[in-house]
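Q: I have 176 residues here and want to know how they pack in 3D. Can you give me a structure?
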Amino acid sequence: MSDKKSRTRRQEFLYRNEEMKILHMAKLKKAELTITEFFNQRVDEYLQTEEYPGVDYSGMKIKMNELEKENEQLRATLLIKSGALKQTKGELRTIRAETIGSLNPQESLNLSIQIESAIKEAGSITRSDLLSLIEEPEKIKGILGLLSQVELRLVQQSKIVITNGGELHWIGTNLN
């Protein structure tokens, strides 16, 4: 019965070649260790530290620490930029509301349609010429903000292009 127990605990180790076996046996004899003692010590060390002493993990640990620090810095930067973007969007909404505040939604829509039609009919027009087509534009609070919004929408829809001189050119493509 004890013979079966000892066989179930037995583990074989195969050497790459006979020279390696002779070299290992000589080193173990010099260290006054048996093969079993040597393997038990190494396995215990590995199980406790999860590191094999023959492999240098220090460079890998340093690199992992550096990457973790960089990751934390990037997350902090992203958080700051996200907050700034959120704040900027809020301020932009406030500015737009203040700029176009005096026009009711229907008036704003009608004026937007008129601006778009005027650009389309002219084919090419400057902002000042566009404003001159609107009756008493100086009396309409927020007209410049509305004009900018209409221009932005038309550019995004690929209906107009704006040259460096500020001239609006109708190209009429609608990607939506």
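Q: Anything worth noting?
A: Residues 16-50 form one domain. Strands lie at 124-126, 160-162, 167-170.
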